[in-house]
């Protein structure tokens, strides 16, 4: 068990789940890896110098499930128990920290339609929640708020009727309310601003059989003139088709399968090359 700690202690230990720690595993930065691991034994009696890194991760994660349910815990649990349980990695794309308008979505799922998951953990504040879900509804057919019971009690009356609600409980997620379709709220500008230049050019070319021959400084403006004339229902489908091309490589999917449950979400937060994926898998078996 983790001894009683201050918030700053939890923050220090949570570095083991950070993107920086994953990068250090990927790049064989042993010195930096051990700096983080050295923070843990002073707070965790079960961790000694004879455990594999993957076991340390799982022990800390188990205690966080009781004592410190931060964003990583929510996001990772959602990925394990909802997304991976419902979908196959080969026909479903999950993206983390996905920008929509002026908001950044925690998890975006593309699998024939679009689903957004916005997390408000025990560590978060309700700041900007309504603006965030308003932005997401302009692009995603279904939007979920993922949270805990006390937070829901405080803001339930403020949540729009079309937003689904998932509560993280002791045994997993409980769907309190299913989301409603947001197709009538879709917005051309929001879709367009998410797309990369090659992606919106592909859509314009597919629909109109040409791309405006203008200087690069004008391509955004001229392509959008055409883009906004396409029926929004078609835009949604073409948007999914283009975004889905951002699919993981096979070695990245293999990494997800081989990672311990405590850090599976880390494999979609950054795209590692094949050598880095092998390094991560190898370092997880390292004895601390």
Structural notes for this entry:
The chain is an alpha/beta fold and 288 residues long. It has 14 helices and 6 strands. It has helices spanning 7-13, 19-26, 30-37, 53-67, 71-86, 129-136, 149-155, 188-194, 197-208, 216-227, 232-243, 250-258, 266-269, 274-284; strands at 93-100, 103-110, 114-119, 142-147, 164-169, 172-177. The chain has a 6-stranded mixed β-sheet with strand order 1-2-3-4-5-6, with helices on both faces. The model has no long low-confidence stretch (mean pLDDT 93).
Strands, helices and their partners?
Layout: H1 7-13, H2 19-26, H3 30-37, H4 53-67, H5 71-86, E1 93-100, E2 103-110, E3 114-119, H6 129-136, E4 142-147, H7 149-155, E5 164-169, E6 172-177, H8 188-194, H9 197-208, H10 216-227, H11 232-243, H12 250-258, H13 266-269, H14 274-284
Parallel strand pairs: 3-4, 4-5
Antiparallel strand pairs: 1-2, 2-3, 5-6
Helix pairs in contact: 9-10, 9-11, 12-14
InterPro entries: Sce7726-like
Organism: Myroides albus
Protein name: Sce7726 family protein
Please describe the structure with a list of short key phrases separated by commas or semicolons.
6 strands, 288 residues
The global form is globular
Q: What is the averaged pLDDT score?
A: 93
Strand order of the largest sheet: 1-2-3-4-5-6
**How many separate domains make up the residues?**
3
Strand elements, count: 6
Beta-sheet strand percentage? Answer: 5-15%
Helix percent band: 40-55%
Termini separation comes to 19 Å
Judged by helices, strands and strand pairing, the structural class is alpha/beta
Let me know the largest β-sheet: 6 strands, mixed
- The arrangement of helices and strands along the chain is HHHHHEEEHEHEEHHHHHHH
Instruction: Give me the oligomer status.
Output: single chain
Low-confidence residue ranges = none
Total DSSP helices: 14
Radius of gyration: 21 Å
Organism: Myroides albus
Protein name: Sce7726 family protein
